[in-house]
Amino acid sequence: MTPRPTRILLQTTIPPTADDWSIARFSLLRDLLVGAVDGEGRPLYAVEARDRGPVGVPDPVLSRLDESEFDQLWLFAVDVGNGLATEDCEAISRFHAAGGALMVTRDHMDLGSSVCTLGGVGLAHRFHSKNLEPDPRRHVRDDEETQAISWPNYRSGANGDYQVIQVVEPTHPILLAPSSPTGVLRYLPAHPHEGAVIVPAGAKARVVAMGRSLATERNFNLAVAFERGDEGGPAIVQSTFHHFTDYNWDLSRGCPSFVSERPGEGMAREPQALEDTQRYALNVAAWLGRRGIGPEET
Question: How many CB atoms neighbour CB 182 within 10 A?
Fold first, then answer.
């Protein structure tokens, strides 16, 4: 029997908005996943990419996610705290509890804090006003360039640049690079103010990758992996959605008008940085879908 493609929903927490981080700004990720094939040229993933419906009412897809045929939800929490209705959170939580796979990411300060009540993974995301980082010494500004943004706002670099990631041993499958001389990934896109993710108390999860602030040299978590278990399906929580945006992969794709920081050119100058980033995204999709991670996935 021919295996069916894994069904992935790429979803933001805002309605379609041209001058914001709507799903149209994740088109390179979508194209990468759609173009992934197995050794016989068969598509690995069937991808739907959408923004949420009107804010203030349940989203027609998210609020019934547990009744859908999706295998994975990649949730880009780009809202200011109101992006998920109660019904959305409850359905996503049921989806995860029943074995559905999640990749949930946000950004600095309180951006994306609507994910706080998601079962299993909500407590992994730490914000300025909700779910504060447990260490009060981290309740301080890291990036000083954009004064309107407060902690957590870890500066891994400029948009358009890359950061050298710290792989936490033992190496998690999402960080493997079979074609690399070292066997592991080295780079992810940088961002001036990344958010905070931790391992919640009692969770079957661990930090798998860390970054280092260029402003304070403080280490911070980039990704936490939740294993599949009795509590639910596998999950990855990520410190910022900018690891996946078109702008952070290719500056020529542009950004919303409110982005004021001066960009860098590291991603354009170092082809390995984009290659590692694309491999990371494919690794996440493969691991969440229980697929093998190897050079046959292109």
Answer: 9
* H-state helical runs in the chain: 27-35, 86-97, 246-249, 266-269, 271-288
Per-residue pLDDT of the chain (298 residues; tens, 9 = 90+): 668 999 999 999 999 999 999 999 999 999 999 999 999 999 999 999 999 999 999 999 999 999 999 999 999 999 999 999 999 999 999 999 999 999 999 999 999 999 999 998 999 999 999 999 999 999 999 999 999 999 999 999 999 999 999 999 999 999 999 888 889 999 999 999 999 999 999 999 999 999 999 999 999 999 999 999 988 999 999 999 999 999 999 999 999 999 999 999 999 999 999 999 999 999 999 999 976 565 444 4
- Is the distance from CB of 121 to CB of 97 less than 8 angstroms? no
Strand order in the sheet with 235-238: 45-50, 6-12, 72-76, 101-105, 235-238, 219-226, 205-212, 166-167
Pair 154, 109: CB distance under 8 Å: no
Convert 207-267 into a string of H (helix), E (strand) and C (coil).
EEEEEECCCCCCEEEEEEEECCECCECCEEEECCHHHCCHHHHCHHHCCCCCCCCCCCCHH
* Pairing of the two strands 162-164 and 187-189: antiparallel
SS3 assignment, position 93: helix
Q: Tokens for 28?
A: 């390179």
DSSP symbol at 164: E
